[in-house]
Amino acid sequence: MIDTWRTRVYRFLRRLWRRPRIDLPLAFALLLLSGVGLVTLYSAGEANVGLVGGQAARFLLGAIFIMLMSRIPPSTLRNWTPWLYAGSTVLLVVVAVLGEGRGAGRWLNLGIMRFQPSELMKLTMPMMVAWYLHPRQLPPGWKDIAVVGALIAIPAALIAKQPDLGTALLVTAAGTFALFLSGMAWWRFGLLAAIAGGMAPVAWHFMHQYQRNRILTMLNPESDPLGDGWHIIQSQIAVGSGGIFGKGFEQGTQSRLDFLPEHTTDFIFAVFSEEFGLIGVCAILVLYAFIIGRCLWIAMEARDTYSRLLAGAIGMSFFVYVFVNGGMVAGLLPVVGVPMPMVSYGGTSAVSLLVGFGVLMSIHANRKVHD
Amino acid sequence: MPRLIRRQFKDTRGEGELFRRRALAGFALILLGLCALVGRYVFLQVLHHDEFALRSVNNSVKPRAIPPARGLIYDRNGVLLADNVPAFRLEVRPDQVQNMNQMLAQLGKVVPLDPDDLDAFRKQLKQSRRFDSVPLKMRLTEDDIARFAVSRWRFPGVDVVPYLIRYYPLGSLFAHVVGYVSRIDADDLDSLDPERYKGTTHIGRIGLERSYEDMLHGSPGYELDEVNADGRIQQVLETHPPIPGKNLYLSIDARVQKAAQDAFEGRAGAAVAIDPRNGQVLAMVSVPSFDPNLFVNGISTADYKSLITSPDKPLINRAMKAGYPPGSTVKPFMGLAGLEYGVRRPEDSVLSTGVFYIPGQSRGYRDDQRYGAGTVNLYKAIYASVNTYFYKLALDLGIDRVSEFMSGYGFGRPSGIDLPGEVSGILPSRAWKAKHSPKERTWYPGETVIAGIGQGYWSVTALQLAHALATFAGRGVPYAPRVVMSTADVGHTPSPLPNPPAGPSLIKNMKDWDAVNEGMQLVIYSNDPLSTGFKFRLGDGFPYRLAGKSGTAERFSRTSDAYNENRNTAYLAARHRAWFEVFTPAENPRIAVAVVLEAGAWGAEDAGPIARKILDAWLATQGGAVPPDTPLPENGVTAAPAAASTTASEVMPEDTPQGDAPAPDSSSAGDNDQ
After folding, report:
1. Does any domain span residue A345?
2. For chain A, how many structural domains are there in total?
3. What is the ipTM, given to two decimal places?
4. What is its main location (chain A) (predicted)?
């Protein structure tokens, strides 16, 4: 048989179909989650079928990415890692110079579609940290920590400058989790955390006024109920009025009557909480915990350090999404643009999340063989 | 070197173990974080659920008040005095107008807009939310509506809206009694119950509209609307209809009222007619009057200015807000006081020489007749209005007894009528002088003397005099005057408002009443040329006996003792206030009238005919005859004395002194009849 590229692609697609290299529990959990997400979006978007259809199409695209990524062995990914990281960083610089977007320079117009390089960085960051730590003696010493710190700080700073505090936070978290999982000593972690805490006033100094206002408003939303406090107050009213059992599907007045802003994107979890109550919140958080736990399980089963660190970091940064968004909606954290994964309406974030899960599937397929 | 070796040989199994521990620790931390999150949701959704549920409802469910229809006002026969008529106004929704100034300029070419309209609109625009309609122009004409309808497409956000507006069909006739409503302003909002007045635009300003505001207003209904964050109504959840205000029925008869107003022929003055048996006001006019409809939608500056600057002050309800010296109209009450305190008997006489001197003083107090009226008893003192009799009587009674007695008849204090803004007038007394004249606190006998003829400090409103006269005519039983006779809920028959007498009869001995009554009948019917009513024949052609008294009060103090021989009527009218008080039928009174003419020369001559016209109109409303429940004289006045004595003896089964007095009276009446 002549091994033309055409037959190779054909063989690849056939194997993809016949023997998908995916972890069924994780896939099932993701399917369930995307179902919940679409149902919530249907209600939050006032039964807008187009909206739900668009989101479903993205999920479909994400599923295809999962299939594709699951075929790429972690060793190949590892070889690509420095180039991917360098590429994403360059794109961030390009965006910083000539980006476009509403208010914040985050978007890069590629002619056919616009996309945010910062989304790429959500995945390439833990890859890069894992790549760096992979050949090194673990737990890492100060020198390695310093290098990893620099690897994290440069893109994070570029993203924060856009300004997109939410993504910067997620990118930083992903890198930091890789470092944490690599076994970095607790005391070093504690020391760095203390220093970071000490630097908080400096960070405050460099923040935009609107970012400061968000923090101040979170601390006292009633100070400006019609302005900055509006989001937080209305979101808490939505959550609180849901009670234990919720108001029922499509019965949430806060979103239906437009009291809740951004109720299909960043604040969709308030709609979910209003309509499905505490029981729904607990159920979906259990689902999220299961997905994170499964990711960590896959990480523990992984064959090498790179795969372990990458899978673990992806799983743990999933938690950051849930915690930051859930906390923001409930008035526990300031308003930052972090979506509720698989529930919030939004293009690139859903796809990039699913690409990450594709990597996990690949790592799962290449797990170590038990003796 | 050892470092390098350790690098070469990574402890992969150890690293795996380290990772496993870290992953488990990380998962534990994540679970902790998720538990914290759940804790926050429990805090919001369980512990503070009630608070947030309430705030959610408050967000989305807004009550919208439906204002009640204001109660209507009728006269005693159901003639409509205050109506609610449908009208149309232009309303603007600010959020649907792109360029307000441009829109107003273009709209002004289609529908004429006054500067007043625009001012009010802009003021209200600032105070309202963007999606609340703001009225731009009230009371559109059919022409306005038609022209707007044609070019309506050019004005998105502008609409013609129907509403109910107060309308007073009889215009100026009842302006002072019924009053008017006008737009609620910022000052009103401070004192109003905001719940009851939600959605209401007008409030009673003066007259009955004000004093019965509470009854007329009704209770607003409301509907619960589901609104979105922009405040737009999504659906109506519940509707609770409003309860309309009560309808009022006045005791005033519009025909009598009309006759009273016409009788003044535009001369400034006031007249009040009261039913002595229950205090019901039968007519109350203040001339000149004004059109209350002007005020309903905000009176234009030009109209208001002309009302304010008019020398006759048409906005003032003279009947109860303007006090005048009562002059001789107090004499019957003085005479009664003399009898009641036992200081005089009716037949006790005084010699009138033309001038009266307080013993030991040189200042003279004059009679009307230059050389006096001769020997004067109570009857003559009243019908000829002999000052000397009352000078001496006042001096004998003393000011304290005079003011005590007069106070009983309501002088010097509000009558208690159900209209707002009544003045007290002035009843001369030591206490009043001490309070109002701190520098000169002593009471002089001379002040008592002139108080006896209704001069001096005295100030009395037409309402007060009518009230006092009605109290006397009702055999001393005091009733607070009432304009509203009964009220009715919409769709129900009217139920009367109770008005029990304010106390027992003020008259100790009904013989005293008969005597004074007799004196007042002689004013009308006496053939003595000295009688003040002799020339004017006020009782002619009236089927019942009248009992009256004129009064001519001086507006200014005389500057000299010289007799003023100027008899020019215009000159005197400028100096005098003409009063006339009269009640009828004399034996069993059913109406008591007080008339004051601001620029009348003589009481009986100028004010008397006005009173007679009021009585004629009242008679017409009674079918020209006494209603069946009253003893009816067979042939008008001729039979009156007999009827009078039987009536009196029926009411007061004791000997009355009418046998002596009525004789000349009946003959005079007979003469007048021809």
Report:
1. no
2. 1
3. 0.91
4. membrane
